[in-house]
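User: I'm new to structure prediction. If I give you an amino acid sequence, what do you actually give back? Let's try with this one:
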Amino acid sequence: MIPDVSVIVVNHRSAAHAVRCAESLRACFSSEGIAGEVLLVDCGSGEEEAQRLAGAPADLRILLPENRGYSGGVNAGLARARAGKLLLSNADVIYPPGALTPLLQAIEEPSVGAAAPLAFWDAGGRVRLAPGFAPGFFRDLAQLASGRRPHSDARRFASFARETLVLWERGGKARHLSGAVLAARRDVFDRVGRFDERFPFEYEETEWEDRLRAEGLGLAFVPQARVRHLWARSAAESGETDRRRALSRSLYRERRYGRLGRAVLEAMDGARRASPAPARLEEPVLPARAGASLALSPNRSLLPFAAASLAGGFRLPDEIVSALRPGPLYLRVFREEDGWPLETYVWEKPN
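Assistant: Good question. You get back a string of structure tokens that encode the predicted 3D arrangement of the chain. For your 351 residues, that looks like this:
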């Protein structure tokens, strides 16, 4: 029997997360009455990791001998998936009951190329992760110039905050979706192609979504579908990760903006100027503030950001603190009615 949905879970050195992800998917299949299959793809993690994955409740385990990146892992799963509806997933995602049905319903609309859920960073479901952050030459340029023109930075932040709050609350058409969880139909992949494996780390879903839009297909953000994304925990950051990310970024810039555009952005990236430092926090804690939310990001521009309401005050959950790399975390209080930034702080996680 052909399943209703094929879920492709891509793993690289995060077996414990992958097993938990597969278990949560099985629980969703049961509670939501979905006939689904789980395809667990490991990207060259080695024999020890493969042994750990043996306990995952997957219908098929695909053990790749080398690390082909998320794009290669997805493509390996697509080659073996049987359903007409597909769900692509990072290993560090937990699916509570009710998470799948709204996504699968969203992609039944022929004009929708892909759909993504609302993802929470914490177990308490308070810190919401950004739906995505659409690139563009002038947007990328403004990111690199952040801090030079504070009022322009504030307007850009407010615009993104308003757009993000609407998507979190009401959903709808998005300009970009995070690749951590993406639902799509098989005919969409037949039409626009699979992920480009020349992107070794990140940007693979961004380039694929560019192809969707070029074909007149839309991206749907579905807040009724809720998952937990253990962001920054699926695999430890390393020099190799940074190198692969830089390669993907350079390739994407050249493909979308041309050699000159890539060169301009890389020159800006290497010539960033220092801007006034925000006020320092001894702890990542802020008091209650009516009508305001708190944005959190490792990026000094605070774009994109995760966010939580300040209605009852805020303390960064220990589970998030433990997952963060040592270094700065930027926090910005902003008005919910118009997204305007009010105060910005920085907290430094010690080594």
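You can read the tokens as a compact description of the fold. Here is one thing that stands out. Residues 239-269 form the longest helix (31 residues).
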